[in-house]
Amino acid sequence: MSATTSGRGRLQLFTIAAVFFGPLAIAAWLYFAGEAFQPEGSANHGTLLEPIMNVGDALSVPAIAGEGQQHWLLVYAAEGPCDEVCRQGLFTTRQLRLMLGREMERVVRVFLHGEIPPDKVFLAEEHEGLVTLQDPALASLLSGALPAGEEPGGYYLVDPLGNLVMYFAPGLDPGDIVSDLKRLLRLSRIG
Which CATH class name applies to 47-187? Predict the structure, then answer.
């Protein structure tokens, strides 16, 4: 009877050890196996800007600093006068915000323009609530953060903490941009 009890005790000890150490061993193997078990692609349509850069830290006093408190910022930048391409970009930011539905109050649209100020009548009639800024240092920072291979003239997303988070290329489908924005807003506990 003692040999049977001893055999059962060892089996129980082995089972308990396997239940505890088994998942740890499998997790370590998956972690160290490298790219064999990495998910393919990503769920986002925009480009994550890495490394994450804080606008406030990068610029001594950015003009955008007061705009982003408790809000996400969707920034559209244009260097020259606001021509048809610029007006289409502003229209897209307005539509993107409206497509967010009940979450749209969490997003503020920002137009970063060059030396030539935009037409104030046009902005008042077509783009109520749009924040317009002229900040050459911020424009330089944004163009420097543009991911390699991406087309300029898109939209930058800044979180409520001032971090430059994503870039959406100008030709990207607005539905895909809204999908990314909704996912970020749903997962975010800030703003």
Answer: alpha beta
